[in-house]
Amino acid sequence: MWIALLVFCAPRICAQDAPAAAGDGKSYFEPAPDDDGTVVKLPTYRVVEQRILPPPESWLYTAIPGFEVLSNASRRGTRAFLDDFVRFQAALSVVWPAFAGGKSTRTPTLMIICGKTGAYESLGLQAEEADAGIYGRAFFVEDDERSAIVIDYNYIIFDENSVFSLEPDREDENAGLGSTVGQTGYGPISDPFKTLYNQYTRFRLRRLLGKKAPPPWFEEGMARLIETMDFSGKRIEFGKLDESKFITSPYESMDNLAQAAANDGEIGSGINHDLGLAIMGRKAGILQNRGNPLLPMAKLLAPDAKPTKAWSNQCYLFAHMCLYGNRKEYQRGFIKLAMRSLSEPVTEELFKQCLGTSYKKMGVKLREYLATGWHYAQIYEPSARGADFFAGIAKVEPRDATQAEIGRVKGEVLRLGGRPVESRDAFIIPYLRGERDPALLASLGLLESLENREDRALKFLDAAAKAKAERPRAYLELAKLRLRKTEAATGAPDGPLDDAQVDYILEPLLAARGQPPPMTGVYSLIGDVLLRAEQPPDAARLEIMLEGVRHFPNDGVLIYKAALLYANHGDPERARTLIGHGLKISINARYSAELEKLRARLPGGDRPKTGAPP
Q1: Which pLDDT score, from 0 to 100, does residue 89 have?
Q2: Is the pLDDT reported for residue 32 higher than 60?
Q3: What is the pLDDT of residues 587-606, one digit of tens each?
Q4: For residue 534, how many other CB atoms are within 10 A of its CB?
Q5: Cα separation, 461 vs 40, whole angstroms
Q6: What is the phi/psi pair of residue 519, to 5°?
Q7: Alpha-helical runs (H) found in 552-585
Q8: Which end of the chain is more exposed for a tag (fewer CB within 10 A), N or C?
Q9: Distance CA 609, CA 578 (A)
Q10: CA gap 492, 391 in Å, rounded
Q11: SS (H, E, C) 531-561
């Protein structure tokens, strides 16, 4: 293999480069000048320093519904981890179908399971602007096209026969709820399975909210609640309060609640332990008292709350009580508060409007909830005797990953995490080894386009498209490059396009329509091309614009382009319907005015026609 590699590399360089070290800030690879000639060749790279190409990496690869997975944990550990995750998703779809989601309409999410020393650190976030959620030794990142979840499995696996690691938790030792668990004096047990459940919950919340970041207290509470789900093929238990997460004294009683109420629902100074956080002696001597109060509700709900263990556990308690306690009297208000806090700050007045109680009284309610032990959980069992929730779910079988898969997946995660230099090197190293996987070529094409090397990007993306790579963004970028190439050749940036030019530009866009996820940019660019076509588009191509509006019914720009095309090509009633829908939704003032002008020039004037999108 090494001999073959040297032969492959010899015409270009004598020695190859290793990827830049973390934080190095530079890449050791740069584009080589393209050769002249009539035969189209893929671009090449050259090195700018003499370094040895790093040895091939050893990872496992598999695909499960909605995910591409790369792992350098053991094969057995990877299989068990992913089998459990697939069953967790199935159990969650029983408990909460809308949350678990149905058939994926997104580019598969990337998951990296870091099972060897240094793997997680090499992928860690460095850019503050990265759209990321971080939970312990795990994080997720995303952009408009795709997402990635990274788990530090090495940090939390003790050995091949154990999935738990008891590490002393000295950080935040006196922070409050959750500083101590059991009698060990150690911090919470790190469980990689629950870490993934927690991170997946955060990921799904953002998907449900259209990528908006949920209120921190809501996200934390829901993630903690869902991670406690206990499931098997015969029984699912959801919503059980894990009392071991809360510090308590076995000597407390309900009488202390009166004193708590006198202190605005919170424990005042001079009191040695947290009044009311008793489980009434049911677990006397098991949990230790650390003398820490509940946080004030204003601090719990603050958008910039410090994510301590005390705060995390109280978010969990608050979510559990509102959703499942007190006969669910706060359930509707809890959801209302979460939704309203997406667009306005949480104040006590807003809290009262949603939940019908004050911060003071809610503090007392939380203490009562823990003290009484009246906690409910939901139990699900298969409706048919002998049935199994997980029947038909196949076992996950990871295989050895190719170098192209390793470089592509790691490169995409590094790009999403704000590390462009490391991302570039991750993509290029397998390419230098001779890998020509279509998905890798698509990633390289997008990289070259991002770095404004359009001729090189066009070659990579053309090759990826010919090999039928599954990457809709690559096809969209290819169409943009073809349009710019056409405009440069004609010298008319806004000029009309003949039939051959229209077909040349539309070819990759039509291919992108057949791949998830639907992208508004694909339909918008189709609209731009059709509006510039010298010949009227046929009915089938006009129908594509309606398809786009159905996918994106709140995209005002897309609605305007569709309406304009129908108005220009003889279907005024369809145009009027689109205009009515566009004016009905809240789009910007510019497009509202353009839609009004367009309606005024239709036959019949500005006679309104409203309704659902066509």
Answers
A1: 93
A2: no
A3: 677 778 889 999 998 887 65
A4: 11
A5: 13
A6: -125, 130
A7: 556-568, 572-584
A8: N
A9: 9
A10: 61
A11: HHECCCCCHHHHHHHHHHHHHCCCCHHHHHH
State how far the Cα of 526 lies from the Cα of 551, in Å rounded to an integer: 14
In sequence order, the 6+-apart residues with CB closer than 8 A to the CB of 21 are none
- β-pair partners for 63: 68
At 142 the three-state DSSP class reads: strand
Beta bridge partners, 46, equal 30
Distances (CA, A) of 88 to 139, 231, 449, 480: 19, 7, 39, 41
Sheet of strand 399-400, all strands in order from the earlier edge strand to the far edge:
132-134, 138-142, 147-152, 109-114, 67-71, 60-64, 399-400
The token duo for 561 is: 């382009």
Neighbours of 18 (CB within 10 A): 14
pLDDT tens figures, 338-365? 999 998 999 999 999 999 999 999 999 9
Query: Could you give the 3-state DSSP secondary structure of residue 609?
Result: coil
Dump pLDDT digits (tens) for 57-85: 999 999 999 899 999 999 999 999 999 99
Which is nearest to 559 in space by CA: 516, 501, 598? 598
**Residue tagged 């047990």 (tokens):** 189
Q: Tell me what percent of the residues of the chain surpass a pLDDT of 70.
A: 72
Phi, psi dihedral angles at 358 (to 5 degrees): -90, 170
Q: Tell me the angle at which helices 403-416 and 420-432 cross, rounded to the nearest 10 degrees.
A: 170
**Residue 370 to residue 282: CA distance in whole angstroms:** 12
With tokens 């154990």, the residue in question is 162
